[in-house]
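Q: I have 430 residues here and want to know how they pack in 3D. Can you give me a structure?
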Amino acid sequence: MALHIQMSEEAEREYKRAKMRGMLSSFGAATALSLAFGLTLTFTVIYFATEQPAEFISYVPPAEDAPPRPVPTTPKLSQKAATPSNTVAPSVIVSTGAAPVAMAQLDIEMDDSADDGLSIDIGIGMDTGLGEDLGDSGGGMGSSSPSGSALEGTLYDLKQSKGGAPTKLAPGGKVNTMELYSVVGAYMKSWSPSALARFYKSPAKLYASNFFLPMANASLAPDAFQCAQKVKPAAWLVVYRGKVKSPVSGTIRFVGTGDDFIGVRFGGKMVLEAGYRVPSAYKKDDLSQVNVSGGGLAAHKERIKSGKDKVHAKYEFINYPGINTWNSEIGGLTAGEPIKVKEGTSYPIEIAITEEGGKFGYVLMWEHVSDTPIVKNGKVTGGKKFYLFRTNFSAPSKEELKKLIGKHAAGKDMEWPEFDPDSPIWVAVP
C-alpha cells in the first residue's frame, strides 16, 4: 500500500519564503566577500607599487671598538682693522652679549671679470680715516657734481630781489659799496640763509673741495653758477656750507685772504675775516673801519693793537712769499682766531666770498699754532708751510686753474702762495 504525503498550502508558502531568504543571504555574503577581496587587492597593489624612501641606519660601534679620534684644534684668532680694498668684507652677526667677538681673518679672492658693473664704495676706512671715494675734483669755484667730499655753494646776487627786481644796492647799475657791506655785515651776524632770502639765488649749486683761486675776473662766478645771463659780475656773494671732520687734534687757525673778502665761520663762530674789507666792522654811513687797504690797513692794525677791536684781537698779518700784491696792499695773509679741534670730531663750517666788481681771488689755508712758520720783521723766513684747506685729494696747480678760469683770466701772472702738498684732508660729512 503506497503512502502519499502532501504539504498543506500554508507549509508550502513558508517553505518558499525560507528558500528565498537563503538565496538572498547567500548572494549578500558572496557580494560582501567579493568587495572585501577587491579592496584588499587594490590597497596591496598600491602599497607595493609605490617607491618607499630609503632610510639610512647608521651603525654606532661600541666605545671600545671605535677608532681613536684626533683632538680638534682651535684656529688662531686675530683682529685686523679694515682697510679700503676691493675685497668684500664678510657679514658679522653680533650676539646680544656685551663681550667683543674675535673672528678668524678671512681673505676672499675676487675675480675682476665677475664684477658685472657692480662696485663697493668705502667712504672712510678704519685704518687711515680716508676712503677712495673722496674724489679729487672741486677746484676753482667748485664742480657741478655733488660726488665725493665737498662743501655745497650757492651764489646770491645782492643787486636784485629773488623775483628779479632791482635792489637799492645798485641803483642805475652802479654798486653802492656802503649798502653792499651793510648787507654782508648784517648777514655775518647770524650766518643764517634766511638773512639772504630776499635776494636772487642761483638755481645751480657748486661743490667745492678747496678754496684757492688767486686771481680771476668777477664774471667767473656767475658763469660757474650757470646764471651769467641773469647776474652781472658785481656785488655777488657766494656761500659754501657743510660739515667737516677734523684730521688733527690741537689748536689751529685758518689763514688766508680774499679780494674783496673771505670769511670763515667754524663751529658756530666766525674765526676768519680777511681781505680788502672787514664787513663785521661796518657802521651806518661809515666805511672807514670796513676798509683795510691803503691807510685803512694801518688803522685796522692799530685798533687791534690798542684793544678797541675785540672781534679781531687775536688776528695776525703775515707777509708771505708769492703774493706781492696782497703783501703790499692788505698786509699779506691774515691768520684768524685760534681754535681747538679734536681729531675725528665733526664741525659745521661756512665760507663766504664776495666781490664788488672787477678782479677777485681768494686763498684759504690753515696751520697748527705750534707749527707756525718763523716770521722775522713781518716776513716768513722758515718753518713749515701752511696747509691747504681741502676736503678731498684735490690740490690746485697753476695749469689746472688757468684752464678752469679760461676766458675769465684777469692777468698774465697768477700770484701763488705756497702750501704743504701733503696737507691733511678735512673730510666733508653729512
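Q: Anything worth noting?
A: Residues 1-5, 56-66, 70-129 have pLDDT under 50 and may be disordered. Residues 125 and 149 are 14 Å apart (CA to CA).
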